Amino acid sequence: MEIYGDTSGLSPSETKALQRIYRRKVPLDRLTTPELTRALVGVSHATGRQVGVLIDRRGAVHHVIVGDASKLMLPDLGRMRAGAGRLRGQRLIHTHLRNEPLSRDDLVDLTRLHLDMVVAICLAPGEERALCLYYGHNFPVVDDNNEPPFRTFGPIPYAKARDNPAEIIATLEQEFARAARVRGVAAKDGRAILVHVCDKRSAGQAEDSLRELEELARTAGVEVADRVLQVRDRVDPRYALGRGKLEDVVIRAMQLDAETLIFDRDLRPAQANNIARMTDLKVVDRTQLILDIFAQHAESSDGKLQVELAQMKYLLPRLGQRDDALSRLTGGIGGRGPGETKLEVGRRRARERITRLQAQLKQLGKQREQRRARRKKSGTPTVAIVGYTNAGKSTLLNALTGSDVIAEDKLFATLDTRSRTTRLRSGRDVIITDTVGFIRDLPKDLFAAFRATFDETQDADLLLHVIDASDPCRSEHVETTEKLLVDLGLERVPRILVFNKCDKLDMPYATLGDRGVPVSALNRSTLGVLEEAIESRLEVSHPMLQADGPTSSRPA
After folding, report:
1. What predicted TM-score, i.e. pTM, was given to this entire model?
2. 388: which strand partners?
3. I need a surface site. Which of 2, 227, 397, 471 has the fewest CB within 10 A?
4. pLDDT in tens, 535-548
């Protein structure tokens, strides 16, 4: 029978005394029993350490744990039981060496593990006997306020402890189920807490960064329950956040019924694993969130392959952190001897899939090259629309060409390059191409996977750099877009700055400066100046263009 926790320094007799605790039974209608109390208090008094047990609802002891003088480290208890309002079905009974209430560690374990109850037996000073009890249980919080998601009781003199856990737990599960029905979830993928941690140099941009993360979460179908910001001298290498702050987040997640933490940064595989183990919550970093959005919005086979390739490259270094069971050996050929480990098999299959995806994308790239060659041969000029995500690029494409490309007020609503042929007022045909939106700190694997789609813009005669004029961060968005255009080798292509969404501005257009063209893509009448600017720029690069044939708006 295994003893969990810090077993160093225990004598053989103390170890045997701890193992005998597994024989004890505690009825569900009792906080503890005299026999269990004597056993826990005896070892705790002899060792000067906290000692505890995890007991199921049948009264059986599942784990015996030894800590230090101030806390216990509970073992991994596995996944939660399913069902709305369900608690874990286990309660923790442990000792405190001094007459002290439930500690912060006790309350964090109570909430993050959804324990039925935590009971602390306080030792009398210098004596081998129980003085009093403290206990606590989780409590449903329907309103999103700062009310703690637990209730604590005590000190209760040990001889007068008459509370009935069975009645308390039954009532609690009914209340939790009722609270889950009342709260509901507006988003399809549940509720999440956004977490931003940065050093003091980056504190000024934290609020803008969190606002963008919230928009990403909304696009992914997640309801944002709360936002957490911590400014530190340096990011914690183990948990990103400080451990104390992370414990606060666990309690807050219990308050708000949030099951996911979304970090506004890329987490190393070990960091994500450490956070998940400590919080018992789903952990998502910024790259993973963006990948999820891309996976939801990709429509063409090209786009789906590019997203899957980026996902596989993201997953590969994280396979070793996902499940310790993956490290078990599998059989060799015919089941004889140790072959590859399950982890090695998973990695090999991931690499093979990456190779196949790259081959498929290479073939699709050849097809794109053929289409580009046909367009170039036709002599029709190409105008590419680029810009930060959700700046209104697809809406502008629809307005300029009269097409009906999907345009939503979401980040990355467009993932597939679309080209439409239209005719300007002068009668000249042009091909206008919509592209994937940019974003700050675009994941490198995602950028590499989607770089091929920007081949469509390599031969562009003109770029329309679309900017959301109503966004307070538009200057930073322009800077991000210009940097990525340089990375794509498009810095020499002529461009027009298009200040979109000017209908949302309270200030005059003139305050935008004379660098660009103000428009509202939702109002066709505002596009005249832009069309004139496009024609003027194209005349320089295509002076011999002829205007003939009927006006058209069709796929290119």
Report:
1. 0.73
2. 438
3. 2
4. 888 876 665 454 44
